[in-house]
Structures are given as structure tokens and as C-alpha cells.
Amino acid sequence: xxxxxxxxxxxxxxxxxxxxxxxxxxxxxxxxxxxxxxxxxxxxxxxxxxxxxxxxxxxxxxxxxxxxxxxxxxxxxxxxxxxxxxxxxxxxxxxxxxxxxxxxxxxxxxxxxxxxxxxxxxxxxxxxxxxxxxxxxxxxxxxxxxxxxxxxxxxxxxxxxxxxxxxxxxxxxxxxxxxxxxxxxxxxxxxxxxxxxxxxxxxxxxxxxxxxxxxxxxxxxxxxxxxxxxxxxxxxxxxxxxxxxxxxxxxxxxxxxxxxxxxxxxxxxxxxxxxxxxxxxxxxxxxxxxxxxxxxxxxxxxxxxxxxxxxxxxxxxxxxxxxxxxxxxxxxxxxxxxxxxxxxxxxxxxxxxxxxxxxxxxxxxxxxxxxxxxxxxxxxxxxxxxxxxxxxxxxxxxxxxxxxxxxxxxxxxxxxxxxxxxxxxxxxxxxxxxxxxxxxxxxxxxxxxxxxxxxxxxxxxxxxxxxxxxxx
Length: 472
Known about the structure:
By secondary structure, the protein is mainly β. The strands form 8 sheets. Strands 21, 22, 23, 25, 26, 28, 30, 32 and 34 form a 9-stranded mixed beta sheet that branches. Strands 1, 2, 3, 5, 6 and 8 form a 6-stranded mixed beta sheet that branches. Strands 11, 12, 13, 15, 16 and 18 form a 6-stranded mixed beta sheet that branches. The longest helix is centred in the C-terminal third of the chain and has 4 residues, at 417-420. The protein is elongated. The relative contact order is 0.05.
């Protein structure tokens, strides 16, 4: 290869000339574009060459690139040309069918890309918000890729391509992959199909859907990880200006759907103004504070009734939180991995604690549970190595998972309601462990009494503090 056969263009695309032909192949890319158009021809020295091929892994180091256009003359692209790189790539080709060699362009870890063919002038458009559309019929389009940088996006029900107004009917595979800035997306009623569009994102994205319920013909994997709300009407969403979003769910109720604020201390209001009317904040939605690593203290108003799944997952700095007295349900993983949380007091009136709700709370030393709690999910307190648990109930109700306390953390039963809030702030002289884990002898304790079930299996075991080992 002679030096005259090599070139780098202004966009950072690297080319080499075919031997004995006036054609060139793309060998690499070192630019920083978001959307890239490969030209039909390139001048190599004094020779104009048709860009006809792409080498293996040419776009493995693609940086910020999200979408790429292949020219009409691109007849060959070696399998793997778009593979190996970080980030998902959307490929648009002018030719009507997939080039020879591109066997794995349509998704999968081998290519990490998805392609649309036959995309010529009049069949593609990008709006001012960074939404890229591909025409699928004379009067309808698909959202193919989002390349914008907004935090909140509302997909329009109609858009224009080539001067023709088209209905936005579909959202394609990978359309919102790697959308690092987005925290919320609104999908209009016009959308009849959604592919595997909302996976592979680094942060929680709340999805608001105008349709009443999830359509049956949407892909089963259209959204594997983000909270979705249905029957959302225009004007139902409010933003308080500090990074917190609310959704009107009934005339008198609102859900806090997402908080993106980096503040260390947050006070949730008891009511929010939506569409000119004041509405009570009654729920903390799924993933509302998920991953807010800077959050130290949060004040929840008495109007709140439920704390949703994953609501505070991964709030590693959270040390101050009081669950209001009117909360009735705490969702799955609600406080998972809140590793600085020192204690939790479940309010009287709460009836449900979800699975893994307080799991991996490494600093949790004390939890009190009233007799109103009739259901606790599996491993609710797993991985809490310093925890002692104080329960108003005489024993675990039938609705509690047999594995609710999998590490057999010391549990004190039959604590009076009057003493429940103070229990554990002084170490007890007797404790009780449950299930088969009762065979394990807690350090510093000696066996006091066993209780078996009707089949002779060990159900509970009481212990008393060993004065020899504890010095008491």
C-alpha cells in the first residue's frame, strides 16, 4: 500500500484504495460525530474512488457515534464491521438490501448495531429534538434513533418527511439505547408498535404512555428496566423546577415519578400544582430516587401511602428517613443497598414489605415491625450483618416468607406497641431466631428454649445472653 492510497477525510474516516481498481474501502474511524455520512466517492491522490466496502471492526472505536449512513455503492461490508465497540449503532443504507457479508447487522452482541435499508432522500428525517425517523409507508414513520441530549423528551404524534405529514406509528429496535441524558420519554397514542427500544441505558428513564394500557403487539422486550405509566394525558406531568417530576394519577392524587436532583437533602411536598390545581402527593413511584448517591436525607410527607419498587435503590449515602405513619406498602427492593441507613421503623398500619426491600443495607442495626405487617417478601433483610429486629407479633405471620430473614439476624418477638419504637436502643436479654437457621448459635448467646411445628421441625428458638461470653 502506497501513501497515496491512504487518506483521512475531514470527518475522521480512514480509507485505503483497492488494488487495481478505482474503489476504496473504509478501514477505520477516529472522528467525534454523533451522526456520520460516508460519502459515495473519495479522492485518493488524483484518482476519484467509489467507496465500496468497510473492513472488519472499522467502527469498533466509534466514540460518540450513534448513527451512520452507507452510500449506494456500498456493496460489501465485512461481517463485524460495526462490532466490538462501546455503544449501540444505527445503520442507514441507501441500497435496497443488506450488503454481502453483513450477516449480523441486525442486533446481537456480535454487531451491536441495527440496520435500515433503502433509506434514500425523502425517506429519512431528523427533527430539532434529535429524533431520527425512517418512512415505513407513504404516510407513516418509525422512530429509528434518538441522538439528542435533552433530559425530557415528548415524541410527537406526527412529523414531516419531504414536505409530507406522517403519523409516528412505530419505535424501532435500539431507538433509545445509550441515551445517557434522558430521564423521561412520553410516547403518543399514535404509536402502534414498539420494538426492543428502551434497553441498555445507564440510568433510570421514566416512560409515560398516552395509550390506556400496554398494547399486546408491542415487543415483549420493548422495555426491560424502566418504570412505565399508562393513560397519561396532556398536562398530567409536572416538574417542580429542581429535578423532580410528578404525575397526576387521579383527580386528587399524584405520584412522584422521578427525582434527578443532586441535592443532599430533599423535602417532598405534600401537594403539587398540576394543570392549575393542587393535588396531594400520595405515592413515591418505582425507581423514583434510584441511584441518587448524593442523597443523605429525605423528608416524606404524611400524605404518602406507598413507596414503590426500587424507590430508593442504591441511595448509598442515605442516613435520614422517616417512613410516614400512613404508608401501607413498601415495594420490592425499595431500600436495597442503602448502605448507610442506620435504622428503620415500619409505621403501624403498614401491611406489606416487598422482597429484598431492605437487603444489602450494611449499616442497618435496628428494624421495628408492627403487627399490622401481614406480608414480608423473601430476603427482605438479607445482607444486613449488624441488624437486630423487633416485632410486635408473637411469631412470624403466615404471610411472611419463610426466608424473610435469611441470615437469621437476632429477632425479638412480642414487643409491645408502646415499646416498639424504643426497642433495640438498649440490647435485649433474650432474642428469638426462626426456621432451620435456628440451629446457628448467635455469638454471645446460649439456648433457652426450642419450639417445633406439628411435624417436629424446628420453627423457633429462644436465646438468652450468655453472661460468661458477654461479661454481663
